[in-house]
Design goal:
By secondary structure, the protein is of the alpha/beta class. It has one domain. It is 43% helix and 13% strand. It is built from nine helices and seven strands. The strands form two sheets. A five-stranded mixed β-sheet has the order 3-2-1-4-5. A two-stranded parallel ribbon has the order 6-7.
Length: 187
């Protein structure tokens, strides 16, 4: 696996992932993506030759809607998704409000928000467009995730508070325990 086309092909061939993408698409949210571990874990599982899917703690559905930043609405959306696929640990977040929680300047879109994820290898998203074409976004490129490297996203390196967040995530997530080929960098 060494290209966007390879990643998209593997996702298209994964019925579980496609069912999740179709469920999220059915909400018709503005500027929506499924991101982070949903995509990264698939790539790393394949690169490690795993035959079983690695369990992920949640399926992150993000969207961008400045007109409704009510967190209760996000919970309603999660409930709707649980009705469609109850066994999936859904997490729905409107990125028009998440900059407040993350102590960052306002995001301009979901892709902008994804670019502000702490690690470059996690800053990934996938969605289905209106014609059911699978689309991948990788604001920091695919090099790190494909080379099994975890690095802080560029904005992390400009703030000691964010650097601490990155370091805490590295220790808490402990990705090399699951994916032994993964290398962690702190610069």
């Amino acid at each position: 696996m060494n290209s966007e086309e390879d990643i998209l092909m593997h996702i298209k061939e994964d019925k579980w992932m496609m069912d999740i993408l179709k469920a999220a698409q059915s909400l018709e949210l503005p500027d929506w993506w499924i991101c982070a571990g949903f995509v990264r874990s698939k790539i790393w599982d394949i690169l490690h030759g795993f035959h079983q899917r690695t369990t992920i703690s949640d399926v992150d559905v993000v969207y961008f809607d400045k007109n409704n930043i009510d967190e209760a609405y996000e919970k309603k959306l999660e409930s709707q998704l649980k009705e469609v696929i109850p066994e999936v640990p859904w997490s729905v977040k409107n990125q028009a409000r998440m900059h407040i929680i993350n102590n960052l300047p306002p995001y301009t879109s979901s892709v902008d928000a994804i670019s502000k994820f702490p690690e470059t290898a996690t800053a990934l998203g996938v969605k289905l467009d209106k014609e059911n074409n699978l689309i991948l976004t990788a604001p920091h490129g695919l090099k790190d995730v494909i080379h099994l490297e975890i690095r802080p996203a560029p904005h992390i390196q400009t703030s000691s508070e964010l650097t601490t967040l990155y370091e805490d995530r590295i220790h808490t997530k402990n990705w090399p325990k699951t994916w032994h080929k993964v290398k962690v960098f702190f610069e």
